[in-house]
TrEMBL record, chain A:
Gene Ontology biological process: defense response to virus; maintenance of CRISPR repeat elements
Required cofactor(s): Mg(2+); Mn(2+)
Protein purpose: CRISPR (clustered regularly interspaced short palindromic repeat), is an adaptive immune system that provides protection against mobile genetic elements (viruses, transposable elements and conjugative plasmids). CRISPR clusters contain spacers, sequences complementary to antecedent mobile elements, and target invading nucleic acids. CRISPR clusters are transcribed and processed into CRISPR RNA (crRNA). Acts as a dsDNA endonuclease. Involved in the integration of spacer DNA into the CRISPR cassette.
Protein name in the entry: CRISPR-associated endonuclease Cas1
Lineage, broadest ranks: Bacteria, Pseudomonadati, Bacteroidota, Bacteroidia, Marinilabiliales
Binding residues annotated for Mn(2+), in chain numbering: E162, H226, E241
One protein family per Pfam: Cas_Cas1
Classification via InterPro entries: CRISPR-assoc_Cas1, CRISPR-assoc_Cas1_C, CRISPR-assoc_Cas1_HMARI/TNEAP, CRISPR-assoc_Cas1_N
Keyword set includes Hydrolase: yes
From TrEMBL, chain B:
PANTHER family attached to this UniProt entry: CRISPR-ASSOCIATED ENDORIBONUCLEASE CAS2
EC number: 3.1.-.-
Gene3D superfamilies xrefs: 3.30.70.240
A Pfam family that the UniProt record links to this protein: CRISPR_Cas2
Function (record text): CRISPR (clustered regularly interspaced short palindromic repeat), is an adaptive immune system that provides protection against mobile genetic elements (viruses, transposable elements and conjugative plasmids). CRISPR clusters contain sequences complementary to antecedent mobile elements and target invading nucleic acids. CRISPR clusters are transcribed and processed into CRISPR RNA (crRNA). Functions as a ssRNA-specific endoribonuclease. Involved in the integration of spacer DNA into the CRISPR cassette.
Superkingdom as given in the UniProt entry: Bacteria
InterPro entries: CRISPR_associated_Cas2, Virulence_VapD/CRISPR_Cas2
Keyword Ribonucleoprotein: no
Assembly, per entry: Homodimer, forms a heterotetramer with a Cas1 homodimer.
Protein's recorded name: CRISPR-associated endoribonuclease Cas2
Binding of Mg(2+), residues: D8
GO molecular function terms attached to this record: hydrolase activity; metal ion binding; RNA endonuclease activity
Record-stated family: Belongs to the CRISPR-associated endoribonuclease Cas2 protein family.
Length: 334, 88
C-alpha cells in the first residue's frame, strides 16, 4: 500500500532523477542531509511545516498522482494541490445533484450516514462497557434516539437528533478516558487535551475521506447530510461521520489510556491547547497504523484495510446515486 | 510484498542503478535498498534494471523477498545511515 508522508521540518522538496528529494534546512538555513522518497510508493504528502518547491516538482507530482495537503500553524487545513482530475463523469455529477435536489432521496442518504455513524459509536461504547466501564445508561439513550432516525421528515430534524446522539456520546468520553476530563466539546479553539486531540483527529479523518472521494467520480462539494455550503468539501464531512468513531475516537482512547500521549505533549497557546510536534507525530503514527489495519470484508471475502474501506464506501454511494444498488452504511460487526 | 535489494555493478553503471532503485525503494546503505513494493512494480523495476546491467562484466542484483515487513526482523548495529519513517 502506498504511504502518506508528513513534512514537519522546513525544507526543500525537489524532483531529482525522476524521484523525490527532500532537503531539510535548520534554523540558520543550512541544508541538512537529503532524503530520497521512492516516488512509486508515495500516495500523498501532508505539509505541516514550511516547504520550498517549484513548478517542476508539482508537474512531476501531478503526473505521479500524488496529492499535497497544506496546513497552517494551527493545524487548520488550508488547501491542497490535487493532481489532474482524471475521473470526470458528467453522468455521475448529474445523478448526484438530482439526488440532492429531491428531498426524499437526500433525506434517505442522510439518514443512512447517521445510522452508520451512530451504530459505530454504539460499538465503541459497548466495547468499553464490556471492559468494566458502566456505559449502559448512555447506550440505552442512544438506542432510543436511533429509533427516531427513520421517522424524521427533513434534514434539520435529523441533524437535531444527530446532535443529541453526539452529546450523549461525548459525555461517555469522560468515563472511557482514564485520567483526562473532556467536559463539553469545544472547538475553535479546543480548550482541553481531549478536545484538542479530537479536533486534530477529525481533521485527519476529513482529509483522508477527501482523498478517497477524489479518487472516485464523486463531486466532493455536493453533500447530503451537511448543507453543501461554500468553501468546503462537505461530502467528505458526510463520509467522515461513518468513520470517525472507529478511526479517530478509538485511536484517541488508546493513546490516552495507554499513556502514549501525555500532558507534556501539549502546549497552551493563545487560549487554546494544541499538540506539540512530538505529540502530533505520536498521534499520526497511531492513526496511520489504524488505517493500515486490515479486516476480513464480508461481501468481498478478502482482507481490506481501513483506508481502502473509505474508498469502498464511495463506490457504494456511487452505486446508490446511479440507482444500481441501495446504499447501506458501513457498520463494524466485530 | 517487502523486499531487500542489493546490487554489485561496474563503476560506470552503479550511478544509474542507484537512481533507478531510488524511484521504487528506500535507500538504506550503499547499494542496498529495502521497502514495500507490489509484484507488478517489482517486475517493472527488474526489467528496467536488466537494461542497465551488463552480463559480460558480471553485474549482479540480489533480491530477498518477504511477504510482509513484520516477518522480517531488522537489526542495526552501529550507525543507521537512513531511517525510514514517514516523518520528515
Amino acid at each position: 500500500m502506498k504511504k502518506t508522508y508528513y513534512l514537519f521540518n522546513p525544507g526543500r522538496l525537489s524532483r531529482k532523477d525522476n524521484t523525490l528529494k527532500f532537503t531539510p534546512v535548520d534554523e540558520e538555513g543550512n541544508e541538512l542531509k537529503p532524503r530520497y522518497l521512492p516516488v512509486e510508493h508515495v500516495d500523498q504528502l501532508y505539509v505541516l511545516g514550511s516547504l520550498d518547491a517549484n513548478s517542476a516538482l508539482y508537474n512531476f507530482l501531478g503526473k505521479n498522482d500524488i496529492a499535497v495537503h497544506f496546513y497552517d500553524y494551527y493545524e487548520n487545513y488550508t488547501g491542497s494541490f490535487a493532481p489532474k482530475c482524471k475521473l470526470l463523469s458528467g453522468k455521475m455529477l448529474i445523478a448526484q445533484t438530482q439526488s440532492y435536489l429531491k428531498k426524499s432521496k437526500r433525506l434517505e442518504i442522510a439518514q443512512s450516514f447517521i445510522e452508520g455513524a451512530s451504530f459505530n459509536m454504539l460499538k465503541n461504547l459497548k466495547y468499553y462497557d464490556n471492559r468494566g466501564k458502566d456505559l449502559m445508561p448512555v447506550i440505552d439513550s442512544i438506542e432510543l434516539l436511533r429509533k427516531k432516525l427513520h421517522s424524521t421528515m427533513d434534514v434539520n430534524e435529523l441533524m437535531g437528533i444527530e446532535g443529541n446522539i453526539r452529546k450523549n456520546y461525548y459525555d461517555a468520553f469522560n468515563l472511557i478516558i482514564n485520567d483526562h476530563e473532556m467536559g463539553i466539546r469545544t472547538k475553535q479553539p479546543p480548550l482541553n487535551i481531549v478536545n484538542s486531540l479530537l479536533s486534530f483527529g477529525n481533521m485527519m479523518c476529513y482529509s483522508e475521506c477527501l482523498r478517497a472521494i477524489q479518487k472516485t467520480q464523486l463531486e466532493p462539494t455536493i453533500s447530503f447530510l451537511h448543507e453543501p455550503g461554500e468553501r468546503r468539501f462537505s461530502l467528505a464531512l458526510d463520509l467522515a461521520e461513518v468513520f470517525k468513531p472507529f478511526l479517530v475516537d478509538r485511536v484517541i482512547f488508546k493513546v490516552l489510556n495507554k499513556k502514549e500521549i501525555q500532558v507534556h505533549d501539549f502546549e497552551e497557546k493563545l487560549n487554546r491547547i494544541v499538540l506539540k510536534e512530538k505529540g502530533k507525530k505520536k498521534f499520526i503514527q497511531a492513526f496511520e497504523k489504524r488505517l493500515e489495519e486490515t479486516i476480513k470484508h464480508r461481501s468481498l471475502k478478502r482482507n481490506v484495510s481501513y483506508k481502502h474501506l473509505i474508498k469502498l464506501e464511495c463506490y457504494k454511494l456511487q452505486k446508490h446515486l446511479l440507482g444500481m444498488d441501495l446504499y447501506k452504511p458501513f457498520k463494524i460487526y466485530w | 510484498m517487502y523486499v531487500i535489494l542489493m546490487y554489485d555493478m561496474g563503476e560506470k553503471r552503479v550511478g544509474k542503478m542507484l537512481k533507478l532503485c531510488r524511484q521504487y525503494l528506500n535507500w538504506i546503505q550503499n547499494s542496498v535498498f529495502e521497502g514495500e513494493i507490489t509484484e507488478v512494480k517489482l517486475k517493472e523495476l527488474i526489467s528496467k534494471a536488466e537494461m542497465i546491467m551488463n552480463e559480460e562484466e558480471q553485474d549482479s542484483l540480489i533480491l530477498f523477498k518477504s511477504r510482509e515487513q513484520k516477518w522480517l526482523e531488522k537489526e542495526v548495529v552501529g550507525y543507521e545511515k537512513n531511517d525510514l519513517d514517514q516523518f520528515l
